[in-house]
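Please check the following.

. . .
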Amino acid sequence: MNWITRFLPGLPTFLHYQRADFRFDCVAGLSVAAVALPVGIAYAEIAGVPAVYGIYSAFIPLLIYAFFGSSRQLIVGPDAATCLMVASALAPLASGNPQRYMELMISITLITGVFNIIFGLCRFGFMANFLSHPILVGYLNGVALIVLVGQLPKLFGYKAEAGDFFGKLLEFSQKIDTIHLPTLILGIVAIILLFALKRWASQLPAALIVAVLSIITVEVFQLHAHGVAVLGTVPSGFPTLHLPSFDPERFKILVQHAASIALISFTSGVLTAKSFASRNRYSIDANQEMIAFGACNIVSGLMQGFPVTGADSRTAVNSAMGGRTRLAGIIAAGAMILFLLFFTSPLASLPNAALAAIIIVSSIGLFDFPSLRELYAASRRELSFSLVTTAAVLYFDVLPAVFFAILLTLLWMLLAASRPHDAVLGRVPGISGYHNIKDFPNAVTFPGLLLYRFDSSILFFNVEYFKERILKEIAASPTPLEWVVVDAAPINAIDITALHHLRDLIEELNGRGITLRFARVKQSLWTFFSSSWVASQFQLKKRVRYNTLTSAVEAFKQRKQENNSE
C-alpha cells in the first residue's frame, strides 16, 4: 500500500474521505467548472484547435491529477503560455493542414508528458528553480503581450494576415479603418463587464456570465446575420482514444519543442502549487508534480487534448471557494462532462469577440505589473534581465525565447557568482567573533594581519576576482602585511583551475614576504587539499589551516613575538 500511495498520493484522500469536506469541495468544484469551461474554449483558440478540444483539455487532466498530484488545491488545465507555445511550434509544421495539425498536437502533448515523467523519475524537480523569478516574469509578460495582440483582429473584426508580434501591431494600425463596429462594441462591453465582475463580484464566474450574456445578445439581436463572427457548432459527446501517426521527419523537431513546453509549464505550474500549499500550511513534492503533469499530458494527448499545467486563476477560485481536497477537481471535471454531453448546442452562437475579450482580460492578468514594480524598487539589474527576456519573447517568438531565457538565467548566475560579496574582518568591542569592518567602523584590525572572507566557492570564473580582491586589500593596508588569513567557512568547493591560480597567488605573496593561511576550512574541502597531488603542488605544511579565526590570530601574534625576540 505504501508503494502505491507513493506514486498515487491522492489515493488516501478518497479512501479516507471526510464527509464534512464534501459541501466545500462541491461548491468549489462547480465554481471551478464555471470558470474552466469558457477559459478552456478560449485557450483552444490560442492553441489553434477547435473549441471542443479546449473542453477536453480542461476536464480530462483534472481526473488524472486528483490521484497523481501532491497538491490539494491545484487545478490543472490549459494556460496561455503552453497554448501559445503549442501554436508556435505546430503552425509551421502543419502547413495549413488541419488534420496534420491535430496529429502533431496529440504527438507533442504525449512527448511533453513523457518528458515530464522522465524528469520526475530522475528527480529533476529542482528544475522548477532553474528559471529565476525575474526571468520567468519577463517570459510570461512577453507571452501576455503576444496573446493580447493576437486577439485584436477578433476584437475589432478584421481579417488577420500577419504572423509575428510586430507585424500584427503594424497590421492593426493599417486596418484600424476597416473595423466591424458591432463586433467591437460587443467585445468592449464584454471586457468592461469582465473587469467589473472581477472588481465588484469576484466570487462570481465572470467568464461564464459574459459568455452566456454574449450568446443571448447574439440570439436576441441576430448579430450573426449582421457580420458578427460566432464560434459555430461544437460537437457533443465524450472524446475517443486516438493514437497519432508517427512522422519521423518531424519527430526531432517535436521533441525539441516538447522539452521547452515541459520546462515552462512545469516551472509555472509548480510555483502555483507551492504558493497555495504554503497558504494552506502543507508542502508539495516537486518531483511528484512532474510525474503528475506527465500523466495528465499523456492521457490528455491520448484523448485529443493539448498540454496542460497548473492554472493559477482556476486554482485561486478553488481555494477561495473553500476547496479542501482533490475531490473538488473531480467534481469540476464531472460538471464539464455533463455540459459536453448535453449542453454544447448554445455554444454555436458564442461570439468570437467575447472569446477575445476573455483571452484579453486573462492576458492582462498574466502580465505581472506588481513584480515589475518590486524589481524596480529592489534591483534594477534584475529588472533589466526581466525586460530583456520580454523583448526576446516578442522578437524571437515564444519557443526560441525559452532557450534565450535559460541562457540569460545562466548568465545572471555567473555574473552573481563571479563577483561575490567579500569582507575584511576585525574584532568589534562587545561582540563576539569577527565582523565586516565596513559594517562596524569601530572594528579593530591587527597590524600586519589581514583577515579576509570570500563568500563563495572559488571556481574558474571567479578565482581572478578572488586574487584581485586580496591583492587590492593588501595594497590598501595602512601597515605592511605579514600574514593573510582567509576565512574559508563560506567556501564549499575549489576546482582545478582555481587551484592553479591559488598556487600562483601563494608564490606571489611569498615573494613579497607574506604568508597565506586558511581558517575554518570544511573537512570535505580539506580532504581534497590534503590529497597527495594537491599537497605537493601547494607544498602544504601542517599549520596551513586553523580551526578558528581566533586560533589563526593567536598563531600570528605568537609568530610575531618570536620574530621580535630574535
